[in-house]
Specification:
Elements (H helix, E strand, L loop, with lengths): L11 H12 L2 H24 L2 H4 L4 E2 H7 L7 H14 L3 E4 L5 E4 L9 H14 L5 H12 L1 H7 L3 H6 L7 H10 L1 H17 L3 E5 L6 H12 L6 E8 L2 H14 L5 E5 L16 E7 L8 H11 E12 L11 H4 L3 H5 L16 H10 L3 E6 L2 H7 L5 E7 L4
Parallel strand pairs: 4-5, 4-7, 5-6, 7-8
Antiparallel strand pairs: 1-3, 2-3, 8-10, 9-10
């Protein structure tokens, strides 16, 4: 696959160096390792709690396990991800590739007596990294505690949490998307890239959520004296609470920026939701675009909304291996929408949730974009920080 030339003003090498030296700080790198350890401890705890050693005495599929446990129909997707990660990370279970994959118990997991002490030590280490770092473990712990509830007793619970409809856990999600520096860096990365790529005009943000994207973008533009480059900023989401709360915060912080606040479902035609064709210059998103049911259809809507020469820029968690379960997905996989919305495709969507870099590039090209690219340079990042996980995916609408 050929990736076309870069925007003339964008120094891809410098951006990769910035990610290595300034974005992925020593604290971020250590926190990433802590989060991985905590995830595996939680998964082994769930493995014991669900009696998988006994249930997997003979090979079984995740769907067979899910049905036997009385879980909601699509719960096998969460179990498949869980067991695949345990097979890769711990060896307590083996996996026979499918489809469908079949799992079998291979070793007894630790008895769990030391788990509380281990998790407490990881929490202390994470807290010592700085403000907000503990939010990642809080989100992980919430997923572990509510695993059975969300997959069996209350299948809509996590969808309400992730949409802001659950008042009790609203702050949990807000902290997980803003206070946690390891998650917040997606917005920082995206804003730095856009500051180099955007020459002015109208910005459409998709799935703006709790404000990670717009906040970082306006902060960077303000620092660079670029706020006047924004003729209009269209902030969109499907959650009325997210829209209202983000509007309140941005009006206080950036009263001079001309913002509009719209309900927009990226799974539907943009034009019918108030975004006309060839009306924007940048379509932006932070960890939002991957939730579209049909990635190519959504990208085609973006293409139609852009003026010739306009650009998409999505700051995304990328799944470097198609079957990889990232720690955050212990909790995200409890969302029915997260598990089931994605339309699978051998080239574009090999799994639910996050896409691989190659899938992004193929999807952009299928949707008609030129200059499909991913930043930073992932080959370089693999060498300097193998656990890196974020990228900015970009493409240009041609001037045909």
């Amino acid at each position: 696959m050929t990736v076309a030339h870069e925007c003339a003003t964008f120094d891809a090498t410098a951006f990769t160096q910035w990610c290595d030296r300034e974005l992925y700080t020593p604290a971020i790198r250590q926190g990433t390792q802590i989060l991985d350890l905590a995830c595996d401890i939680h998964l082994m705890s769930l493995y014991r709690q669900l009696a998988f050693t006994q249930l997997l005495a003979a090979p079984r599929t995740a769907r067979q396990l899910s049905d036997g446990l009385g879980f909601e129909t699509s719960s096998h997707i969460a179990l498949d991800a869980m067991l695949s990660r345990l097979a890769a990370q711990t060896g307590i279970v083996s996996v026979e590739p499918g489809p469908p994959a079949r799992f079998q118990a291979r070793a007894q997991p630790p008895d769990g007596k030391a788990e509380l002490a281990e998790l407490a030590a990881l929490r202390r280490a994470m807290t010592e990294l700085g403000p907000g770092y503990a939010a990642a473990l809080e989100f992980l712990n919430f997923g572990c505690e509510n695993f059975v509830t969300a997959l069996r007793d209350e299948p809509s619970m996590m969808d309400r949490v992730l949409s802001g409809a659950d008042a009790e856990h609203y702050q949990l999600w807000h902290r997980a998307t803003n206070a946690d520096p390891m998650q917040d860096l997606h917005g920082r990365m995206g804003a730095m890239a856009v500051a180099e790529l955007f020459s002015g005009g109208t910005v459409l943000e998709l799935g703006g959520g709790t404000g990670n994207g717009i906040r970082h973008l306006l902060e960077v533009f303000q620092a660079r004296r670029m706020l006047d480059c924004i003729d209009r900023f269209l902030f969109t989401d499907v959650s009325p609470r997210f829209i209202l709360d983000t509007r309140r915060a941005m009006r206080e912080a950036f009263p001079s920026v001309p913002c509009e606040w719209k309900y927009l479902d990226m799974n539907k035609a943009f034009r019918g939701q108030g975004v006309e064709q060839e009306s924007v210059d940048l379509v932006y998103g932070v960890n939002a675009a991957h939730i579209a049911k049909d990635i190519v259809a959504m990208l085609r809507e973006c293409h139609a909304a852009l003026r010739p020469g306009g650009r998409v820029a999505f700051a995304e968690r990328v799944r470097k291996c198609p079957g990889e379960m990232v720690p955050r997905e212990l909790t995200l996989n409890l969302s029915r929408y997260h598990r089931t919305a994605a339309q699978r495709d051998a080239e574009i969507r090999t799994a639910h949730g996050y896409l691989t870099p190659r899938c992004w590039l193929v999807a952009l090209q299928r949707a008609g974009f030129q200059e499909a690219a991913i930043h930073p340079d992932l080959v370089v990042m693999d060498q300097v920080f193998p656990e890196h996980y974020a990228a900015v995916v970009t493409g240009v609408r041609g001037c045909d």
